Each structure stands twice: as C-alpha cells, then as structure tokens.
Amino acid sequence: MQRRTLLGSALTAAVVSSLPKAVFGADKPAFKLFDTHAHFYTNDADKYPFNAKGARFGAEKMIAKAMANPMTPEVIFSQWDAAGVEMGCGVQYNSTYATDNRYLLDMVAKYPNRIVPVVILAPTDAATPAALARMAKENKISGVRFTSSADAAGEFVFLTDAAKGAWQAANDLGLVIVLMPIGAGMPNAMKRVAEHAARYPNVKIVLDHIGFPTPGVTPTFGFSPEHLALAAHKNVYYKYTTLLIEQMQEAKVPLQDFVKYVVGIYGADHMVWGSDIGNTEGKFTDFVQHALESAKGLTLAQQKAMFYDTALSVFIPGGRGPAKA
Prior knowledge:
By secondary structure, the protein is an alpha/beta fold.
C-alpha cells in the first residue's frame, strides 16, 4: 500500500472520530432523507489521478483539500447515518476528476444500495451517446450532469444543437440530465431548458440550485419569468441545496417563506434536496438542520416528498427505459 493511501486512511478515521457528539446524538427527522448531491473522492491519487484544472479555487488547493480530507463512502456514510440519510446520488466531482468517472463508478459497484450515480460527460462529444448507453447498462447510472458558463453569444453549449446527440440518448434511455448553468444569462438558459423539456419528454431535467434565482426579498424571490414558466413542464425538477440556502441567508431572505413560495410554484413532488457534501464547506448536520428548518412551513407529506419521495422516483439506477407508447 502506498504511503499516501495509509496517510489518507488515518486522516479519514480522524475526520470521523472528530465529529462532534451532537452529530451522532441529534434527533433524526420523522422521515428518511435522500441526498441528491454528494461528491465522492479519494486521496489514493496513484489509482485515481486528479484532474483538477476546473477547480473553482485552483487545482493546488483542491488537491490539497482532497488529500487531507477525502470524501470516501466511509466518511460520507457516517454522516448520512447520523442524520437519517438512507441513500443518495453520487454526483461526479468536476473539481477533482473532470469526466473521469472511475472512482464514482467503482464506489457505486461497491455500495449499489446507497449510491445512485450521476456522471459527467462532455455534452458535445460524439462518444457521449454510446457512453451513456453503456454506463446505463453496466454501471446503472441514473443520469448525467452538464455544467458551464455561457459563451460569447450568451448560449450554454449543453443547451444547443451541438449537444442533441447526448440529449436524444438520454431521452431514449430515460435518464436524468442534471443542469448547472453558471453566471450571466440565466433567463436565456431557463428559456432553453423549457425548449429541451418539450423536445425530450422522456428526460427528467433536474436544475441544480433551482436554476440560481437572484437572492433577494422580492415578490418572486429573485425568480425570473423564465424560471417561473418552467412550472408548465412536468419533466423539470428543482434541486434545493446547501449552496442556495447559504446564498439566501446572506441576502437575508426568510427561508421558510422562500420554500413555501417555491413549493407553491413547482410542487413538492418536483423538489429534491441535495447537501453538496464534499464541495460546500461546513458541518453536515448544519446542512441538514438548515434545510429541514426551512421546510417547517410545509405539510409533513410535502416535506417527505421534497426530502425523499421525489428523488427516489426521479433518480432510477439504469434509467427508466424508453417512453411508453
């Protein structure tokens, strides 16, 4: 065994043992949780080399973070168990591995009942449609994630005709496509999402961070008309995340009012929750507590849908298959 692997094992054990007692003694919710946004990575860089060029705070810092605090199943499961999370999506982490999905898929093979994989592939690569078909069959992926900033024309490449091969493959397979457009041009992105939802009805589209509404205390809580118009497309779903919660808190937005508004627009049966563990810094128990507290204005049935039922019905290992005639 390599020295860095031994060091990583010791650090992993230290992370788990150093968790505050309150984590393990906290009251769990009255329903099971499904975490749709967990990032897994290891410090075994010999077997799983890093490709951290896309890390938002720099490759060196990302690699140092991963080496010192790897997000292995053992680490994440200990925190899931303490908080009442039954299972969740392993979302390929672009900041550590880009489109090299091997570590995620190896962990899914080891823990198929706890991790449902969402891979990252290049949306315009000619090899992506075949890769999706192969991974759906062999690795039981539930979907693929596309993310980027807009180009000079204000378009997101994964929402253009250049990506239609990947979209058609996902439609044929009944896979989820998770989208995270970044930065300026969000109203245009939401307009394109609506077009794709109509064009590919067998794709369940999940918007990371609910499409990044502009945080603020406004009548629509920062959602554009294009955001709100998506409610008409029933194959679009909305991921409520720790990152979004933090953005709303910074803008002094009353979270319970925000959640009631969003559920009123889209429905709890179209909402899922994701912790963003492995990316967002902080305590997992805080992630869970803030999310659950913000949903207290909902009925118990709505809370259960938002934190478990919807995700279970959307993220299907291997995909849902072709649409029924």
